[in-house]
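yo, Fumarate reductase cytochrome b subunit is done. seq:
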Amino acid sequence: MEGVIEGFFGKTADGKKSRIPALQDKLQSLSGLILAVFMLCHMIFTGTIIFGKEAFNGVVSFAEPFGIHQITNFIAFVIFIIFLIHAFLAMRKFPANYKAYLAFKAHKIRMKHCDTTLWWFQFLSGFLLFFFASAHLIAIIFGEKIDANLSIARFHQLHIFYILLLIVTVTHASIGTYRLYIKWISIDGVKKEEMISKRHKFKKLNFLIWGCFLAFSIVADIIWLIR
Ligand code: HEM
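structure:
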């Protein structure tokens, strides 16, 4: 009954608003943070190919004690679940119809604010990740033991897919970590000028770190292709 009352009036019977949207926001941020940190580790992992096949296979053996490759399949499954939760929660923020899309577009044009435009990029890259990241994760979950030669073969066959996946992931994750800072950290107990200056500094640092990781991964991708 509570749900029905809230569904009609937007409030519960005792006049309170639901805490669920706030909880959903927290969960979305937390799952996004886990995925962003995972991605930074992942880029170091795939980047080890720069130091040779042995280095890459060494990291795989470290992650799979006693050669149990199902450990990686299982980790990929857990990441997929976190990815699905994150994507499901993010869907709430998508424009629900053409009218909502036009309203956002008009707002974006009028605001001419970098953060609003970044949100739009995050929306588009997030939408693409639904397909790109799902395809990659399903291949890893049901795939055989990871090995440098197998990955080299996959890169040769699917290099356009991997480079697109990389660009879309870095775009999405870098904007995501910047927005996490704006949303949860930058507003706490500081004066407006101080807050704006800290935001600028964090923005530079955030995009510099992701930019370095992207450059490192592009070098790694070239190595994958010439091996
Ligand atoms: C536990 C989960 C994951 C594992 C074990 C894994 C493993 C791998 C492996 C072995 C490669 C080399 C190519 C291949 O053999 O397919 C690769 C490439 C790649 N993966 Fe993943 N992956 C995981 C999750 C993800 C996720 C969630 C994303 C992004 C949303 C992602 C993005 C990429 C990208 C962009 C590449 C291309 C290499 C690069 O440029 O860094 N992976 N992954």
